Amino acid sequence: MCRDFIPIVRKNELLEKALEEASGNGLGYDLGNLRNWQIFVNHQRFLPTANRGDISNFSEHEPRLLNHLVEWMREKLKDESFNEWIGRLRSARHAGLREREVQQMDRRREEVRKWIDKPKKADVVDPSDIADLPRLDPDESIPMKAPRSEQELFYLYGLLSGRHRMPLHVLEYNARIGVDAIASVAPNAQQLIIPKTALARVEFKFEVVPDTSLDHFFKAIDAVVCWRVSKPGRVFEQTAGETTGQLQKRKKSVLTPALDTYEIEYPEDGKMRVIPVLEVSVLFPKLRSKKT
């Protein structure tokens, strides 16, 4: 038996606070996985609970412990070898996440390709082939509120795809696994994505804003569909990804009408790769003139 036995209690929230304060949040969300950090704290004034499974007076010592942790981490962050270790850790983690997402999207794209190639498809639905509902007249109005979210944008894009030939036709959508959608590229939009592809990996965003993240790796995206772009600037991949891209106006649109107003240019395998950004609001010039 040990008279001074102190239980080991995990305090991840304390470690997170210390990391954020010490680095000014400069370590980034990519190191939010705390399994890379193990810090043990003991104090003679800790009082175990009656069952000795926790510490009853931890809260009164927490501010002082936090200050000690922050000071220690700030000193460590001045050490070149420590920062090199962080850099290696970040690079290794990003490389693994990037390849995983690219592989996920490759699998999804291949599944769609196999579905297209099936001679007989039992799970096909064709919205244009409904016998029991009256068709809209070509000039019939279907007004709705302008999108205020990514979900509303996707709904609007679906309506547009039902009435017009859109450059990207969504065949599969899954916002839980990787990039949002797999879409077929229309015959008149073959110049949109380079190198050419019959099936594009498409990310939907309500608004593309500089100094924010697309929440996915650039390598896993072929095109971005948004309601609007706020302005040119730098954008990040997958939260605090190492790679940054330049969000810029396209010199020349390849679509008619010119939905591909912007593009994201970033380095990939020693070359510059371009991801076209399509602004759906271009189709509503009266609304754009009001800067809604």
List keywords for this structure.
2 domains; 8-stranded mixed β-sheet; 292 residues; 5 helices; 30% helix; alpha+beta
Please outline what is shown here.
The protein is of the alpha+beta class.
Describe this structure in words.
- By secondary structure, the protein is of the alpha+beta class.
- It folds into two domains: 12-78, no CATH class; 138-289.
- Helix content is 30%, strand content 18%.
- The protein contains five helices and eight strands.
- The chain has an eight-stranded mixed β-sheet with strand order 1-2-3-4-8-7-6-5, with helices on both faces.
- A hairpin with a 7-residue loop joins strand 5 (233-236) and strand 6.
- Helix 1 (12-23) crosses helix 2.
- It starts with 11 loop residues before the first helix and ends with a helix.
- It comes from Hyalangium minutum.
- This is ATP binding protein.
Q: Total helix count? A: 5
Helical coverage, percent range: 25-40%
Strand order of the largest sheet: 1-2-3-4-8-7-6-5
What does the radius of gyration come to? 26 Å
Principal-axes shape call: elongated
**Main β sheet profile:** 8 strands, mixed
The overall average pLDDT, rounded, is 86
**Strand content range:** 15-25%
